[in-house]
Amino acid sequence: MSKKIFSGVQPTGNLHLGNYIGAIKNFVDLQNNKDNNCIFCVVDLHAITVMQDPTELKNNIRETAAAFIASGIDPKNSIIFNQSLVPAHSEGSWILGCIARMGWLNRMTQFKEKAGKDKEKASVGLYIYPILMASDILLYDATHVPVGDDQKQHLELCRDIAQKFNNEYKCPDLLRPPEPLIQKNFSRIMSLKDGTKKMSKSDIAEGSRINLTDTEDQIINKIKKAKTDNDILPGNEEGLKGRPEAENLMGIYSSLSNQNIVDTLNEFEGKNFSDLKKKLSEIIVTKLSPISKEIQKLLSDKNYIDQILVDGAAKAEDISSKKVKKIKEIVGF
Ligand code: AMP
Ligand code: TRP
Question: Which ligand is nearest to the CA of 155?
Fold first, then answer.
């Protein structure tokens, strides 16, 4: 069956190895299956749920699009665009917001985490963020949505909104509840400074993550300084228990060399972290340096990137404006 894939990444800067392994690398694999139709969106409307510097936001939109393309997403095969260029996302979001219930949103754990202790000071946008995400997905009849584990609850909400809309308005086939595609392996790449914490763009310690724009020397240095423990490396998965740094570094190595963890364990059994780090730096440099160079090259021609986004938006508009028109008719407008 051909799949309609939709996913989004926020242009909030510092794209890192976790984003690459957990999201973008999968997007490329999905696109390379000729049976799939893929749409990848730079979700700039989602980004402003937390205040962004306007100049930086503009740069980050281009950088995210450049990272998609440099990693192998081909604008000839997939639609790449930024959300704010396509008005149907906001229009759909309003209507779906009248279907979603407060009680549903109140259960969203990501809002609770992001809003922190002082919920009263969080933006309303941050609260209704999952409704906009549902609009993104439902406007394209996406069948499958590749996301990280943290987005699973938002996808369940999207399914609930689709079903309630279809029921209330007696249009059983209008909105299609999507299936999540959540990676089983390596879905959480951890900080290089603490194997129990997720690698994150907002970590103040630069050394905790490898950025997609890092130079060879920066990569080598960060891996050299990555946290380890004092044991030699184990030969089976059991031996990784309680050793988050070993698990993380071996996981990154496995993912980038496209081999399963058992093969990696066999390769490094009884060796020191220094042996693993040497091979790990090599593979990260081999995989990321071409991407990093291509991002820089793409960013040096802003018009080229902007044109890709505008062309992608025209294709996205074509699909989503028709869907939003049907939704409006059904609602009675
Ligand atoms: P974010 O940067 O949080 O907007 O995430 C963009 C995409 O990258 C989402 O699909 C996340 O699930 C994924 N992602 C972010 N951080 C990590 C990580 N440390 N490990 C694996 N995937 C991640
Ligand atoms: N909320 C997602 C994240 O933070 C980004 C996103 C927005 C998204 N709209 C989407 C992901 C639609 C998948 C489908 O990672």
Answer: 2
Give me the average pLDDT of each 10-residue run along the chain (333 residues).
93 93 94 96 98 97 98 97 98 98 97 92 97 98 93 97 98 97 86 96 94 95 97 96 97 95 96 98 97 95 98 98 98 98
Q: Identify whether 114 is a catalytic site residue.
A: yes
Smallest CA-to-CA distance from 70 within 35, 105, 27 is with 27
- The pTM assigned to this predicted structure is 0.94
Please pick, among 3, 201, 227, 315, the residue that the annotation labels catalytic: 201
The three-class DSSP label of residue 145 is: strand
pLDDT digits (tens, 9 = 90+) for 61-104: 999 999 999 999 999 999 999 999 999 999 999 999 999 999 99
Q: Is 201 a catalytic residue?
A: yes
Q: Token digits for 32?
A: 């390379």
119 is catalytic: no
Q: Are 155 and 6 in contact (CB under 8 A)?
A: no
Superfamily holding 3-188+302-331: HUPs (3.40.50.620)
Q: What's the rounded Cα separation, in Å, for the pair 139 and 135?
A: 6
**Which one from 198, 227, 279, 315 is the annotated catalytic residue?**
198
Given a contact cutoff of 8 angstroms between Cβ atoms, the answer to whether 156 and 25 are in contact is no
CATH of 206-297, one of 2.60.40.10, 3.40.50.720, 1.10.240.10, 1.10.10.10: 1.10.240.10
